[in-house]
Amino acid sequence: MVRSYKWQPHDEGRHAIPQELAVNDAGLTLCGIEVTAGPDTWPNDARYWPTCEECDLAWRKSEGILPWPRKGQDAVTASRRPAASDSGSPTDVLALVVDTLIAQGADLEPPRR
């Protein structure tokens, strides 16, 4: 799958820019900042910069991925998700995968026993 956007460090944050921007091309981030595209190899310190929340939300929407962090489930997602036991772990990876699949339009059925 070809992604529409790629991530680039800018002003001590990570922002999403159009995939087609080549090095030294001017363009806009998803949050509206004008930037000049840099190389795909980042400086080491930039790997730890925070992700721009606006860019992240816009990118996830364009990819059909639910927003992060999850603030709870809406009634539709909760009613369509197959029942799962509470593992007690801080991040329920299976639930995140199922939520993403449902957001992308998958019609999931509960497991057959």
TrEMBL record:
The cross-references to Pfam families, in alphabetical order and at most eight, read: zf-HC3
> Which residue ranges are recorded for the region named Disordered?
70-90
Protein name, please? Zinc-finger
What's the source species for this entry? Lentzea cavernae
